[in-house]
Design goal:
Length: 206
C-alpha cells in the first residue's frame, strides 16, 4: 500500500473515534503542522504521522458530558488529570488495534502507542518523534481555526486565550520550528483581536 493511501485509510479508521469530541478538525490541523515539522526538523514520518492522526482517539471511551472537564485553559485538578490519563491510555490501546489491522510494523506500533500514552501528560520528549507529535498537537491552539474554535468551545474571551498561550508559548515546545510557528500565529491572532475590537468600537459609535 502506498503511503498516501495508508494515511487516507488511517484517517477513515480514526474518524468514528474522533467524532465523539468533534476532533477531526483538530487532528487535520495538527497533521498539517506535523508535515511542516518533519520537513524542518527531520524524524520518522512512519511514527509521527500515524501518532498525530490517532493521538486523540481515546476520548471516544468517555461520555461527552464529562469530556469538557478534562481539557482547555480552565481544566485543572485531580478529575481533569484522571480523565486526561484515561484518554491517553485508552487511546494507546485503540491505536494499537487500528495499526495492527494494517499489519503495521510491530516495533513502530509500540513506539506510536507509547507516544500516545503520554502525549498530554508527559513533560519530556523521549525521542525526536515524540517531541514533534506533542508540538503538532499544541500548535492547534495557535492556528486560526483552532484558536477561534477553542474560544467558543471553552467560552473564553479571545484576549484570555491569547494571554494564556503567550505565557506558555516558550515553555511548551520542543522544536525551534514549532516555537517559530507558534510565535508567528500569535502575531496573526493579535491582529485579528485588534480588528475585532475595532469593529466592535465602530458598531458602538453608530
Amino acid at each position: 500500500m502506498e503511503w498516501f493511501e495508508f494515511i487516507c485509510r488511517l484517517f477513515e479508521k480514526a474518524d468514528p473515534y474522533l467524532a465523539v469530541r468533534g476532533d477531526m478538525g483538530h487532528t487535520k490541523v495538527s497533521y498539517d503542522y506535523s508535515l511542516i515539522l518533519l520537513q524542518h526538523e527531520g524524524g520518522s514520518k512512519r511514527i509521527v504521522e500515524p501518532a498525530v492522526i490517532l493521538h486523540d482517539v481515546g476520548w471516544s471511551v468517555l461520555e461527552p458530558e464529562v469530556i469538557s472537564a478534562a481539557f482547555g485553559v480552565l481544566a485543572e485538578g485531580e478529575e481533569a488529570e484522571r480523565l486526561n490519563r484515561i484518554h491517553e491510555t485508552e487511546g494507546a490501546a485503540i491505536a494499537k488495534q487500528i495499526l495492527r489491522s494494517f499489519d503495521y510494523e510491530l516495533g513502530l506500533v509500540e513506539q506510536i502507542s507509547a507516544i500516545i500514552s503520554r502525549h498530554d501528560s508527559g513533560e519530556n520528549a523521549h525521542s525526536l518523534e515524540e517531541g514533534l507529535v506533542k508540538d503538532a498537537d499544541k500548535l492547534w491552539r495557535f492556528s486560526r481555526t483552532g484558536y477561534w474554535e477553542e474560544t467558543e468551545r471553552q467560552h473564553l474571551k479571545p484576549a484570555t486565550l491569547f494571554e494564556f498561550l503567550e505565557l506558555r508559548c516558550r515553555e511548551w515546545f520542543f522544536s525551534p520550528t514549532a516555537l517559530r510557528l507558534a510565535e508567528e500565529e500569535l502575531v496573526r491572532r493579535r491582529d485579528e483581536i485588534t480588528a475585532l475590537r475595532s469593529g466592535e468600537d465602530g458598531d458602538t459609535q453608530h
